[in-house]
Amino acid sequence: MALSLDYRGLVAFLLAFARALGWLLLVPPFSNRRVIPPLATSCIACALALLVSPRIPASMIPYTAASFIGELVIQVLTGAAIGYVVFLLISTVTTAGSVIDHSSGLNLPPSIDPLGLDQTPMLGQFYEQVAMILLFVSGGYWLLIDGFARSFEAPGFSLAATSRIAQVVVLDLATLFTSALEIAAPLLVVLFATQVVLALLSKAAPQMNVWILGMPVQIFLAIVLVGVGISTLPGYVGNLLTRALGDTASLFGGG
Is residue 2 part of a domain? Predict the structure, then answer.
């Protein structure tokens, strides 16, 4: 029995696979090849390619080997640009936890981040895990996949689009720092006020060893405040997802 292959469908699948692979290599938690097996990442990229390949217009299909290789490179760069924007915005929550760590005293014992496999402050790691759980439990990853699929409606990576890409990345970096401070600000204010009270207490009662008293108090307050403030994370994650979808749509002049 003869097997016939549709040239357009095969090329569209390969182009979509290249963009999906470039996207997954930067979107957490798939960005860590030591935690997520490369075979699993490749299989997910194949599934995404099967999903979005019908969206590729006929004008994007190359008919020569040189143009095909060039188009593959463009698709990888496009996927990487979209994935990096998502990575920046999701990292906001981790950054907020790290900022809290440096003021609470919980950053003293080293810990290994299971997603990044690098040394991460304890609360930064906790906030990252909560953000990942919220992404999957709330269906946020379906929104990210929908944004990735809609990226084929816009032109891909090009030299003309580099200025727009740089502008989006700079704005997202600013969002990362401002949003991280916004998430951590209530806890930082309380911890700072605690340090002021302890300093006044050391002046009022010099015989007390404020250093021994202050560290447990700060750690206890940090744990309690994180337990109370963690309820606001779903709203922040939802806002970051909305921002990621908007940036994905506008990154190359689409949407």
Answer: no
Count CB atoms within 10 A of the CB of residue 29.
Answer: 16
Its pTM stands at 0.75
Whether 18 is in a domain gets the answer yes
Q: Is residue 199 part of a domain?
A: yes
One pLDDT digit (tens) per residue for the chain, 255 residues: 343 446 777 888 888 899 898 888 888 777 766 677 788 888 888 988 888 888 787 777 887 888 888 888 888 888 888 888 888 888 888 888 877 777 766 655 555 555 555 556 677 778 888 888 888 887 778 888 888 888 777 766 666 667 777 888 888 888 888 888 888 888 888 878 877 777 777 777 666 666 677 677 777 777 787 777 777 787 888 888 888 777 777 776 554
Distance CA 249, CA 208 (A): 59
Q: Are 126 and 92 in contact (CB under 8 A)?
A: no
